[in-house]
Design brief:
Elements: E1 3-13, E2 21-26, E3 47-50, H1 60-64, E4 70-72, E5 78-80, H2 90-94, E6 100-103, E7 105-108, H3 109-116, H4 120-126, E8 129-133, H5 141-153, E9 157-162, H6 168-174, E10 180-184, H7 190-197, H8 204-212, E11 217-223, H9 231-242, E12 249-254, H10 260-265, H11 280-292, E13 296-298
Parallel strand pairs: 2-8, 8-9, 9-10, 10-11, 11-12, 12-13
Antiparallel strand pairs: 1-2, 1-7, 3-6, 4-5
Helix pairs in contact: 3-5
């Protein structure tokens, strides 16, 4: 029985592929992007997250823990020691304000399909289906392949969102099970990619070149202020895309700061300036240049 770790399942998703969809978020990602809005998705194992603004200070979570695994740091953050924690979840169950949560749970393919099939009628009516996102779902490639196979057995439309940090052989194995890829393109230069995401993009660009030549792909570009929205980084992105024998759809994803509170809840620093704001003039200039180059450009969630 194939199992994986899922940290969220979002029903009635409208921007992760065509139609009404259920998006399954796999936990674990090879990248640690400085602007990541979902830092709880990065570590592959389930982990605790603590929202101090919701905590009443009753310490019911500490009382409930027989392993004495919960400690309070000087800044008030409640930390769970994974070497002591038995995974009983009593601390989470006792916290009725949900200040302390466990992010990620082990699921079988059957568990995932039970959730996915609840909205089958909406998929059929709207031309929707199931999207696998993350993290990066290819980080759990065996689990992903099994879930995709189960979806195809039910004749469901499938989408996979990935940053492409994998081998072509892995992508090629799942291609017959995927109706559409959402492929993230962040920066082109290897050194920039490593500095901004923690890993090299050697192989990533080749994967994208191969994929657009043989599959249905939407390229997604997160536009990050002062990182890839102008100058050399943007010119390199545009040049790479224009040199592809492909003029498909590109989604531009505007930078936002909605994930900042999660870094505090995970007791981690946010790597970018927390006051950083997207320059819309630069954003629309990038959009205009892509349209002039022959691409179809969309901004998911924006009003037409």
């Amino acid at each position: 029985m194939v199992e994986g770790v899922v940290y969220d399942i979002m029903r009635y998703a409208l921007h992760d592929g065509p139609g009404i969809r259920t998006t399954v978020f796999f936990k674990g990602c090879p990248l640690t992007c400085k602007w990541c809005a979902n830092p709880e998705s990065q570590a592959p194992a389930p982990e605790f997250i603590f929202f101090s603004d919701k905590c009443l200070g009753c310490n019911a979570c500490i009382t409930a823990c027989d392993e004495n695994a919960i400690s309070v740091l000087e800044n008030g953050y409640k930390q769970v020691d994974p070497t002591r924690c038995s995974g009983c979840k009593r601390c989470v169950e006792e916290c009725y304000t949900e200040a302390l949560r466990l992010v990620g749970r082990s699921m079988t393919v059957e568990d995932v399909m039970d959730e996915v099939m609840k909205d089958q009628a909406f998929y059929l009516e709207s031309g929707g289906g199931v999207t696998f996102s993350g993290g990066d779902p290819l980080f759990q490639s065996q689990f992903l392949t099994a879930c995709l196979g189960a979806c195809k057995a039910k004749k469901l439309h499938t989408v996979v969102e990935t940053a492409g940090v994998t081998t072509w052989e892995t992508l090629d194995v799942i291609r017959p099970l995927v109706d559409q890829f959402l492929f993230d393109l962040k920066v082109v230069a290897v050194d920039d990619h490593r500095a901004l995401t923690g890993v090299s993009n050697i192989g990533v660009l080749d994967n994208l070149k191969k994929l657009v030549s043989c599959h249905n792909v939407i390229v997604r570009i997160p536009i990050i202020p002062d990182i890839n929205d102008h100058g050399t980084p943007w010119k390199e992105i545009q040049a790479f895309l224009e040199n592809l024998p492909w003029r498909g759809r590109i989604d531009m994803l505007p930078y936002h700061r909605m994930g900042l509170g999660k870094y505090t809840a995970l007791n981690r620093p946010y790597s970018l300036d927390p006051d950083l704001v997207l320059n819309m003039e630069k954003f629309h200039d990038c959009q205009r240049k892509l349209i002039e180059a022959g691409f179809t450009v969309q901004i998911p969630g924006a009003q037409p």
